[in-house]
Design brief:
- It is a single chain.
- With about 425 residues, the chain is α/β, with parallel strands linked by helices.
- It has one domain: TIM Barrel (Alpha-Beta Barrel).
- It has 15 helices and eleven strands.
- α1 packs across α15, α2 crosses α14 and α13 packs across α14.
- The chain starts with 5 loop residues before the first helix and ends with a helix.
């Protein structure tokens, strides 16, 4: 059920007031407070009480449409962030990503990407319409808080992969008019706007896009960043190449978001953020949202792991040039063999839990402070770990954070305070 305890609502409203009123005045690199709050430990709030009093927000989840693979969803074939699971887990708001994957870089390919994006926006609107007023689309921090205080679930629209812009900067305005407030220019593979952190295998050349195409952002990409900022929306650097991320940070005056990115030093995959990127995001005032995605959480740099991963790739008949565990499985034509490969990779990685998420959170907080960390799980696109497989299990992360020494104030910032701050900051620019 949604939060219905009156005292809890009042307490939460007060907490949110102080977060929103005070967080903007914090220095960008304020050190983390990981000590329990002062006072008698026996009177300190429990994890359940803190979770109840927090506005819990997930900064990235994919939108489920009929073509979405069931392998990405819950076992019952439903979204991992459907309203029922959100209520069960005390999750108050989710950024729903209007994401499209890689595809032909042709007029027809871009038109198909736009059609997919439009279908996903329509799916969110249908969900809202069918909720009988219990789910709303929010575009500002005040709307997110108001929805929460009214006992409603808030959905915020994000955007991922500029293929669906069809080469037109003006299309950014069209998505903004639909309610999109977070814009990510890339996903898998380079596009006309930017280079990706994840090289795509090219069927045309028979090779990886291991070299940069634009050296970061193209001229279109620069114009897109400028337009996003002018509209007062957030630029999302998750999935961008390192060069592109650093260019965004040079271009924008507003804080930026990494909606679902982990720390490369902890888990050395190209999809994660380097120390330089993390530090620069801290200097920018931005926020990095850690994902519950096993392939981005676990350290895979051990030579024995790589040897076994290469053996799995050889057996599956896919390239051994790129060692991110789950990459290139789509090159396996037989669906049964594809499933067997991904299952073998998952077994090789071993278990992952919220402890792994907290390892990344600790690392990022240790570098740039508590004001620059959040949660963006990437549910409905392969994400989910042993004790946090969907929105219904969100409280497990709160419990882990409290056990690790994070205070109630820290946890409120991690779950939503930092996100709400930068959403406001972008809108104010």
């Amino acid at each position: 059920m949604l939060h219905i305890n009156t005292a809890g609502k009042v307490r939460k409203s007060l907490l949110l007031f102080f977060i929103l009123a005070g967080i903007a005045s914090c220095s960008d690199n304020e050190s983390v407070s990981v000590e329990t709050e002062a006072g008698d430990a026996s009177s300190s709030p429990s994890a359940a009480e803190i979770h109840e009093s927090s506005l819990v927000l997930d900064a990235h989840a994919d939108i489920v449409i009929p073509s979405t693979s069931r392998a990405y969803m819950s076992a019952d074939g439903t979204s991992k962030v459907d309203p029922k699971k959100m209520r069960a887990g005390g999750v108050d708001a989710v950024v729903m990503s209007v994401a499209v994957g890689p595809g032909p870089r042709t007029m027809e390919g871009d038109a198909a990407a736009r059609a997919e994006a439009d279908e996903k926006i329509a799916a969110v609107k249908t969900l809202v319409e069918e909720s009988q007023g219990q789910v709303v689309i929010a575009t500002t921090s005040s709307e997110i808080v108001a929805a929460h205080e009214a006992g409603k679930s808030a959905l915020i629209l994000g955007f991922q992969n500029a293929r669906s812009l069809q080469g037109n900067i003006s299309a950014i305005d069209e998505f903004y008019a639909e309610g999109v407030r977070i814009f990510g220019l890339n996903h898998l593979g380079h596009n006309a706007f930017s280079d990706s952190s994840r090289p795509e295998f090219s069927g045309e050349t028979g090779a990886f896009e291991v070299t940069e195409e634009h050296g970061g952002l193209s001229a279109l990409g620069v114009a897109a960043v400028e337009r996003i900022e002018a509209l007062g929306a957030l630029v999302d650097v998750s999935q961008l190449s390192k060069a592109a991320t650093l260019q965004v940070l040079e271009l924008t005056r507003s804080p930026i978001i990494a909606s679902h990115s982990n720390a490369k030093t902890v888990s050395d995959v190209t999809r994660n953020l380097s120390d330089e990127e993390i530090d620069r995001i801290g200097e920018n005032g931005g926020v990095i949202h850690v994902a519950a995605f096993k392939g981005y959480l676990i350290n895979i740099s051990e030579p024995e792991f790589i040897r076994k991963l290469v053996a799995l790739r050889v057996a599956a008949g896919i390239s051994i040039e790129y060692n991110y565990p789950f990459e290139l499985y789509w090159e396996i034509d037989d669906l049964t063999e594809r499933s067997a490969f991904t299952a073998a990779v998952s077994e090789l990685l071993g278990p992952a839990s919220t402890d792994n998420m907290i390892e990344h959170i600790d690392y990022i907080v240790g570098r740039i402070g508590i004001d620059h960390i959040g949660i963006g799980n990437d549910f409905n696109h392969g994400s989910g770990i042993d004790d946090y497989n969907d929105a219904s299990e969100a409280m497990n992360l709160t419990a882990g954070l409290l056990k690790s020494g994070y205070s109630e104030t820290d946890i409120n910032k991690i779950w939503s305070g930092n996100f709400l701050r930068i959403l406001d900051a972008a809108a104010a620019n």
